[in-house]
Amino acid sequence: GKQQFYFVVKNGNEWGDAQKLNSPVNNSNVMWCSFPQNGNLYYTNVDVESVYLSKYTNGEYLAGTKLNAGMHPYVASDESFFLYDNGGTIYVRFKKPNNQGWTNAISISNLVNTPNHEGTPSLSPDEKYLFFARYIDKSDIYWTRIDNIIDSIKYANFVLYVKNRISNQVDTIGMQFNYTIPDSTFIDDDGNNTLT
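^ thats the sequence. predicted structure below, dont judge the formating
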C-alpha cells in the first residue's frame, strides 16, 4: 500500500482514532515530516526521493513543492533553515532574505559527518542539540551540540554559482579577445549579493 500521513487528535487525556490527512500531499508515497511554528509541512516524497514543502493555508495543506534536497527533513521552528540527509551525509540549507528561496546545500560539519553513513537528523526543542543516526555495523543514535555549528556555517563564505548567464560572445579568429565578466554573473549565498 501507499505510505501516507495520518494524524491523531488528543482530547484531554484521551487520544482519538488515526485519521488520514486530507491533502494532495498524500497523492504520493510520503514519510518523515517536520513542522515549523507556522504549521507548514516539510516531508519526504518517497516516489522522487526528495524533500517537499506543503504550505499550511486556511487550515489545509496545499500540494507540495519540491525543494531539491535529499530525505528526512527537519526544519527549524522559525523556518530559517532545515536539515536533511543525502547519500549518508547531513546537510543544511538556509532561507534566503526576503523569501528568495534557499541556499545551496552545505555539509554541516566533519564533527558530525564521517566516512560512515549519517542521516535522519532532528533537533532538541531548544534547537541546541542535533540527534542523528550513524550506520557502522548497525544503526546507533548520536547527539552533539549543533547551535554553534549552524551559526558558524550560516555566515561562512559559500560556494559561488552562476546567477545570470553570460550572453554569447563573438569575435574574429586570430584577433585578441577581451571581455569583462559582469559582477552580477556569479553569486554566493551569504545574502549580500556580492562575491566577498
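The chain has a mean pLDDT of 88.
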